[in-house]
Design goal:
By secondary structure, this protein is of the alpha/beta class. It contains 12 helices and 14 strands. Helix 3 packs across helix 11, helix 9 packs across helix 10 and helix 11 runs antiparallel to helix 12.
Length: 309
């Protein structure tokens, strides 16, 4: 297998809301809020109009993108044997993604992420992890990892106790490791752990400019470039309208953002960028071609609703 994704198996529920909804529910626009109270989440979801549901999760979105590009890929994520769980598994199978998890009835339901899209196309997420947040070491199949060229992890997976053990088991068994920092709040919660991962354990790190700057306390972007050269690992950074940049083996490569796009929804932009870049990596593209493929995939997905092409 080319790439195995390991992440939170989350059913995405997409809804358009106005700015007032974000304010009234004390949400931080553009970021992800973890909700631990099932009743609180049910109340929130009862007050919106559902546009679309998709079997998602950050890494799962990337893995589906890689599958759509013709790569042999798989995914490990914990679901329950309930309606959303069945839909989740079937959704991945329809996208030709091998799903390496045998579902059973869990105490918690399959995880759900409410994606609230404001008129400016920004997305604010409210995630009830459900059973996805209970993934543990026994859920990680070492044999599958051994047979994968690259494993792709998400920072969101670091948010609970047992998943950290699952995360570390995957890292110990992997041939090559890529990871997304996921979002600024995630970086804030696990700053020291993430810094250790980026410096010493990951082969490829994906981040946006805000996330990586916050992680290393950068005062200017030149600090990020210097950090990337010092760690001598693969650092890939998206910069919105400024394009994307990679730092690897003391070399800095840049790619321009595409212009004149009809942006509808920024959900999944980073996920699909990672898919395009990793597609280039496993198919031996040049660094510039990897960045361009990532930019192309991200540009396509932001011109539609949802995180799938």
């Amino acid at each position: 297998m080319k790439i195995l994704g390991i992440g939170n198996a989350i059913v995405d529920v997409i809804s358009k809301v106005d700015e007032n909804f974000i304010v009234e529910n004390n949400l931080s626009k553009g970021n992800m809020k973890l909700i631990f109270d099932e009743n609180e989440f049910k109340k929130l979801i009862s007050n919106i109009k559902i546009e679309k549901t998709v079997s998602g999760g950050s890494v799962a979105n990337s893995i589906v993108g890689l599958s759509q590009l013709g790569n042999k890929v798989g995914f490990i994520g914990k679901i329950s044997d309930d309606q959303f769980g069945v839909e989740y598994e079937n959704g991945l199978k329809k996208e030709n993604v091998d799903f390496f998890y045998k579902k059973k009835k869990e105490n918690l339901p399959t995880g759900t992420c409410l994606i609230l899209v404001t008129p400016d196309s920004e997305r604010t997420m409210c995630t009830f992890l459900g059973t996805a947040g209970k993934i543990n070491e026994s859920d990680i199949d070492k044999t599958v990892i051994d047979k994968s060229e690259i494993i792709f992890l998400e920072g969101y997976l670091w948010d609970e106790g047992d998943p950290k053990k699952a995360f570390n088991k995957a890292i110990r068994c992997a041939n090559k490791i890529a990871m997304s920092l996921s979002d600024k709040f995630c970086v804030d919660r696990h700053k020291n752990d993430f810094l250790e991962l980026v410096k010493n354990k990951l082969d490829i790190t994906f981040a946006n400019e805000e996330e990586i700057s916050y992680l290393i306390n950068a005062k200017k972007f030149d600090d990020v470039i210097l950090f990337g050269k010092e760690i001598r690992k693969h650092l890939v950074i998206t910069r919105g309208k400024k394009g994307a940049i990679s730092i690897f083996d003391n070399k800095v490569t840049e790619s321009q953002a595409l212009e004149n796009l009809k942006i509808l929804d920024l959900t999944g932009a980073g996920d699909l960028f990672a898919a395009g870049f990793l597609h280039g990596q496993i198919n031996r593209f040049s660094e510039e071609e990897c960045l361009k493929k990532g930019t192309e995939m991200a540009s396509k997905v932001i011109q539609k609703i949802g995180a799938r092409l």
